[in-house]
Amino acid sequence: MEKETIKEKLEHLINILKSKESVLIAFSGGIDSAVVAAVAKIALKDKALAVTINSPLVPQEEAKEAVKVAKEIGINHLILEGNELEDPNFICNPTNRCYFCKKGLAIKLKNLAKEKGFKNVVDGTNIEDLKDYRPGRIALN
Asked: What is the residue range of 20's domain?
């Protein structure tokens, strides 16, 4: 089987996103979520919304960087307040604490998507992430 070119991969991602009709993107401003946001902006225009969770666990510089990156992309962007430290399952610090953290964030994002009329919530998970032990990934399904 022939490997896809970068252009073909980009076209494939654009087509996938177009098929979703509208997306809310879990947006950290890092490379993975920025690529998804940029391509979603191309594919869906104003039917794509980047959302950053502002949390006590996220350095303020990272939140500021997310705002800057979203502006550069030209995508609509919201900051949603979150506080994992209010979840007793998270603060007891179990080995699967990432599950509880991501579950709480996923619920907030899904609720916001429903409220704003977005049909799907997406993130920048890549194929390499799927090879690692990441209990937080389970929470997103």
From this structure: 6-83+119-134
Nearest to 74 by CA among 91, 53, 50: 50
DSSP class per residue in the chain: -PPPPHHHHHHHHHHHHHHHS-EEEE--SSHHHHHHHHHHHHHHGGGEEEEEEE-TTS-HHHHHHHHHHHHHHT-EEEEEE--GGG-HHHHT--TTHHHHHHHHHHHHHHHHHHHHT-SEEE----TTGGGS--HHHHHH-
The answer to whether residue 93 sits within a structural domain is: no
Q: How far apart are CA 100 and CA 97, in angstroms?
A: 5
Res 104: pLDDT = 78
**What's the confidence (pLDDT) of residue 83?**
72
pLDDT at 107: 87
Residue 108 is assigned to a structural domain of this protein: no
pLDDT band at 101 (very low <50, low <70, confident <90, very high): low
139 belongs to a structural domain: no
Q: How many domains does the chain have?
A: 1
Report the CATH number that the domain containing residue 25 is assigned in CATH. Answer: 3.40.50.620
